[in-house]
Amino acid sequence: MFLLTFVYSFRTISLCRRSRTLIPKSSYYFGPPPPGSAFGSHPTGQIGLHHPREIIRVERDYTGGELIQFAPIYPLELEGRITPTQFLESMNSINELLISAHSVRRAMIDNLVSVFSLQLSTVLLSSHYEKEMKRLQQLFDELNMEVYNPSGLNLLWPQKVAFLFLEIEYYVSASVLSL
């Protein structure tokens, strides 16, 4: 009985080591992808219907200090999906809106208006930050529809992770979607 239990537990442990998780999680980049990764393999799945094969993480750029920006460094995993120019243009437009949203001058004006109106302006008007976040959400939707989704990629909204990093889901290529 003991031997049977030992063999069964060894079998389940060895099976767990070989298999990948069904729902991928993004992680820090420490070199080339592991041998079991989906990069370079034939893509499967559909955006919005299946789980992504992999998730690529674009880190925050801390060279500007406290200012929230994403690093415009082209991940090699995106090679063959979108061009470095498309990636750089999308990161620059995202960073522009983030810089505008965190403008000190506009935050000071919003705070002064709310103080002098006894906080009634917060009920009637939306702040500059809220307006820019709506514009950023629209930009994400636009980038997904025009650039990323046709290439089998999907940008995730970074507010869920407090803008610490940007995640790109790695799905199917456009040729597989049309079949």
TrEMBL record:
InterPro entries: Golgin_A_7/ERF4 (IPR019383), Ras_palmitoyltransferase (IPR051371)
GO cellular component assignments: endoplasmic reticulum membrane; endoplasmic reticulum palmitoyltransferase complex
Keyword Endoplasmic reticulum: yes
Chief place of localization: endoplasmic reticulum
Compartments in which it is found: Endoplasmic reticulum membrane
Membrane topology per record: Peripheral membrane protein
Domain Golgin subfamily A member 7/ERF4: from-to ranges: 55-167
Coiled coil: none
Keyword annotations from UniProtKB, A to Z: Endoplasmic reticulum, Membrane
Pfam families from the UniProt entry: Erf4
Tree of life domain: Eukaryota
Gene Ontology biological process terms, A to Z: protein targeting to membrane
Family from the record: Belongs to the ERF4 family.
Oligomeric and partner information: Interacts with ERF2.
Name recorded for this polypeptide: Ras modification protein ERF4
Organism of provenance: Rhodocollybia butyracea
